[in-house]
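Deviations from the work plan: none for this task. Representative record:
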Amino acid sequence: MLAIKNLKKSYGEKEILTGLDFELAPGEIVAIMGPSGCGKSTFIRLINRLVEPNAGEIIFQGQPVHALNNEELRKVRRKMGFVFQHFNLIRRLTAGENLTLGLIKAGFSKEKAYQQAEKVLADVGMVGRYAEPVTGMSGGEKQRIGIARALMMEPDLLLLDEPTAALDPILVRDVLTVLEKVVADHGSRSLIIVTHEIAFARKVADRIYFMDQGRFIESGPPERLFTQPESWIGQKYRDIIEYS
Ligand SMILES: Nc1ncnc2c1ncn2[C@@H]1O[C@H](COP(=O)(O)OP(=O)(O)OP(=O)(O)O)[C@@H](O)[C@H]1O
Ligand SMILES: [Mg+2]
């Protein structure tokens, strides 16, 4: 459902991504892990062109995302939900308004948007919170709304960029529980999750990619990567698992 070929990104003279290849099958769950600054956010943001690539191909459901005009891109983005590390909610709006905004802009009726919002609020354990302003919510609740918003369009691909990294440890568990449910119910939806949460990645991912300095240095099923890693990153993670 997604094929990426020779994807490159530079900022000025600095090459951030050096020519990435990546494939994702329908229904597949992939986790991307690697040290801070290695290019994980840049990569996941390139997939829906929140960041513009310098070179390479992004083919999503047969469409060349890298070559689409703004109108075409808007349509394709509706099939890709995105969950941000820092939630990116509109602070002055309620949970319900944050959720329904995209659907209403896309031409859905208010009634349909409302119904869908109630459905996704239930999916993230936030029933009855539709009319509540997001400003008063805890980080974990804000992120649940962030996840719910990404599910509003029933996307075929869900992109999550360190969805728990901005939360304190108690709230991390709550959000991971919600994400485990999203994964359990994913059906033919594919997910790409950037995360530092080893146990979570190990539990939910079909495949893991280790990234270092703008390239993927190892990929495979979690069982192999965390027990018989070849890369230095895999060896570090294995050590962390063994000592925990
Ligand atoms: N808009 C930008 N302008 C210039 N440099 C950037 C920009 N965005 C990212 N970079 C640089 O690109 C590199 C990769 O950043 P990126 O945010 O993709 O890393 P990351 O793997 O997501 O890190 P983290 O785990 O800390 O989130 C870093 O060196 C960063 O400073
Ligand atoms: Mg990042």
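Residues 35 and 212 are 7 Å apart (CA to CA).
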